[in-house]
Amino acid sequence: MISVEDAIHLVKKNTKPLLKEAIKPVEKAGGYILFKDVYSPINMPPFRQSAMDGYALNLHDNLSYSLIDEVKAGDNHQPILKKGEAVRIFTGAPVPDTANAIMMQEKVNNDGDKITIEHSINQETNIRPLGEQVKAGDIALKKGTKLTPAAIGYLTSLGITTVSVFKKPLIALVTTGNELVKAGQPLNYGQIYESNSTMLQNALYNLKFYDISLHKVEDDYEKTKSKLQTVINENDLVIVTGGISVGDYDFVGKSLIELNTENIFYKVKQKPGKPLFFGKKDNTLIFALPGNPAAALSCFYVYVNIALQKMMNRDVIELPRIKAKSLSNFEKKGDRPQFLKAIYNANNVEILEGQNSSMLQTFALSNALVFIPGTVSNISINDNVEVILLPS
Question: Residues with Cβ < 8 Å from 157, sequence gap 6 or more?
Fold first, then answer.
């Protein structure tokens, strides 16, 4: 059995970035990281563009101008302005080549075919120059950029429809247990509804990982071994829940040994989630999480998340850890470090009731985990404690 710190270190040490390329439609590339530089195919803006509603002017030494035309956004005609002439123009409209400034409409007196501006104006005022954001052939976004909604909008504005991104891992979620029944089916005596796969699938979705397959296996050694062999061969990351302890019908550990999986660690000195396995076979990482739902989710956030972020070659791979003032008293039994479900708000944290590893009700209310080291046995109100902020 190893420490929490050693377990985290081993996950980091044994996880390598995938560094594989995938081509994605821009509209489906949110949350991905660019695999290579993206070059702009056009100037942006692709023409001299009006920055506001007003009047485009061919400047002269007088404040009065003759109004000769109008240009709206989307117009493609080019009025020719002589000195002292103006056209009505609107935000986003193309500025005629013969106009050299735009006066905002609030500072213009319109008298039919004549306008008078309130004061003189410098050349190119309120005109967005050709290629102001980016010029054709220049780098629009560099390799390694995370594609946020703004980045997706920017690339789309350049007419780009596909991008090269770092491939996200193929993930298999495997649940074990004869007692598990799919929600919506009748629940017989001795059975419970299976929640781990749905819970972990949505935790992955929340982290923007979508290439997930779900698998259910009975408490049978040969079936367990066969299923694990298949998913290990077909995926980059395998997450198993249940069957990793030492009961007579826990076949995951035995199957992984038979499949020659490298055991990097098994069992962590922590609560919840002591029977946690981490290993690999060839290029596939395997996490076998406890079957108890709250324990499985705690281990996912503390360990599996690190592997996922490392596989994506991200700089920040752990959830944020901060100090906060406890609003609760808590007495820890035993010497195992503990992850406690909690609610964090404005530098204060409340440790919730119902910390049992099988209970999700409390976890459903939590936005944080309070970490209590093994050397600490009691938390008192106003103590500073370490808080792990969970993804929102």
Answer: 44
